[in-house]
Give the backbone structure.
Amino acid sequence: MPREITTSAVVKLTRNPIRDIVDNLKIEPPKDRRFLSLALGDPTVFGNLQPNDEIVAAVETALRSHAGDGYSPSAGYPEARAAIADFARVPSRPLAGDDVIITSGASHALYLTFKALVNPGDNVLLPAPGFPLYDTQISSLGGQAKFYPLDPARNWAADVAAMDALVDDRTVAILVCNPSNPCGSVFDRATLEGIIAVAERHGLPIIADEIYLDLVFDDNVFHPIASLSTTVPVIGIGGLAKKFLVPGWRIGWVLIWDDPAHRLAELRRGLMGLSALILGGNSLIQRAIPTILKVNDTFHRRTLDVLINNAHRSIEAFKTVPGITCIRPQGAMYLMLQIDVAQFRDIRDDRDFAEQLVAEEGVLVLPGQCFHCTGHFARIVFTAPAERLDEAYARIDAFCRRHQR
Ligand SMILES: Cc1ncc(COP(=O)(O)O)c(C=O)c1O
């Protein structure tokens, strides 16, 4: 009898709620219409947002130099780490190349961080709505997510009192995602200071997922949370995926902003040790990082112009759609639609909305359920070219009118 081959506890603990929902979502678009997906948080899918020639040339140079053919040190090449520290540094707080660990995307940076912090039974405070991978990774380590609510009525500001009340003796960190996926919101300074006060009161570090940094619209301002405190330890998460429009290049990073008492010393050693579990991030792209991070402002301005125009286009389009409130996007590349199911004849919830919409109109949006969202919401990724957005929004409008009570 051959020995049975089973899987590890980690496999059994790894659940991906977004996959569970998306895989079970009935996605049956009509055959006679162009399928329009506004579901994927990948800015490259439509071809209208791409890295510019300068960024591509930096990789080409690295490729031809053969300097990135070999393994890098597991935390990354010193030049790349120093360039990331220069890029991420805030005036009020030192950050050096030694404080940076280069990873295979921000998702790997998050995983290393949770792995270094979370023992079975520990918990991390997470935003709801939030990026579902946090919970997946924490649960896979035997940890637990505890969700603090973001309030749609206040443009998704964090409920800081609720956050404070969630802390218990097994809480190991507070995670903040700003600008937010999936909400497209940007925390104002007062909210961030409130979060810092909670962390300070309980002696907790903050994990700051700031991968959408600087993708901020109109008069909103992005404050790196590390810039607002010199005493709370901050573990920053970032990467090239969004601001530099290259999610496929798989470069992320962990930034260690220690406090004056060096309470992150052990975590730093832990992260360094864990970074050796894989033999370093993508060497080729690391060689190009010093140039990529200094790409001219015109590149960033262009990305931002596309996002801002699309954000405004979206706000305008949904003003007249019955049963739908578009919560004004402030940053990132997302917006949330609030669905007033009472105004529809035959739409039960957000999932039903998404399924019927794709079946009838061939437009895919993700229901808020995918993001631990209570109430009925749908997330829209608005990176598509304007004419596609217009077409998708016209179809959503027609759908809502047809189903209106
Ligand atoms: C909030 C947030 N953090 C992290 C990631 C992962 O980024 P990466 O592609 O660099 O792994 C994403 C990707 O969508 C994200 O939305």
About this structure: The radius of gyration is 22 Å. The longest helix spans residues 297-318. The longest strand covers residues 144-151. The chain has 13 helices and 14 strands.
